[in-house]
Amino acid sequence: MDFLKAVNIIGRDLDEAMALLEQLSGVSGSEQAEIELARSRVHSAAYLLKLLPGLTDAGKQAEPAPGAQSEQINEKMPEPMPGPEQPPRPELPPRPEPLPKPEPRPEPEHLPDPVKAVAPEEENNKHAEATPKAQEASKGILADRFIPSGTIGEKISPARKDEVISSVMHNKPIADIGAAIGINDRFYYIRELFSGDALAYSDTIRRLNAAANLGEAMRILDESTVMGSDPAAQSSFVDVVRRKFSLNV
Questions:
Q1: How far apart are alpha carbons 240 and 220 in whole angstroms?
Q2: What is the reported pTM?
Q3: What is the pLDDT at residue 11?
Q4: Alpha-carbon gap, residue 171 to 246, rounded angstroms
């Protein structure tokens, strides 16, 4: 297919696409911006396509004939000039032969120092002096085993004492459930067991204090607390309620 015919066919296709986009000019909203962008691109492509025939004709006119170009190159190439003669290289003197390495001298053997040598009699005396000292040290260690150390109460660490005191406080009976719950625990129970409803928490505490026994208190808890709440919060709150009714159980 001829190049110009192909360009004309593509140009007609671009004109048809531009006509279709013109029919969609009444569309509003975000699609209008996309249609305008497509129109501008089709218009640019059609404009560049119209310039192609002129560019190809200008390129053909600018190309010279290969024979004329070779003749111009031959005319412009000057004849090479003879270069200057290079002087002869000077001869290098012969390298001196390396001298043989001297042989290493043998090192003298190290003899033991006669002053530092210890006589066998002195070693035996030192061994005899060290034996009674070791026996005295072993006697001292055995004697330490029979020295009475402190009482059992003194051996209990302070951390263990705090645990015992905390366990006694948690098992101590109480008269008012609300008074036995600290500030941090109260906010914790309100958030986990009552879905953040402070009024529901206060009403439940009032009903629990007025309950006759532990069974009635457990029924009030089942009715008042949120289903599927935190098991740790439920267990901790039940322990406080049990302390209220521990004397009546």
A1: 14
A2: 0.34
A3: 79
A4: 9
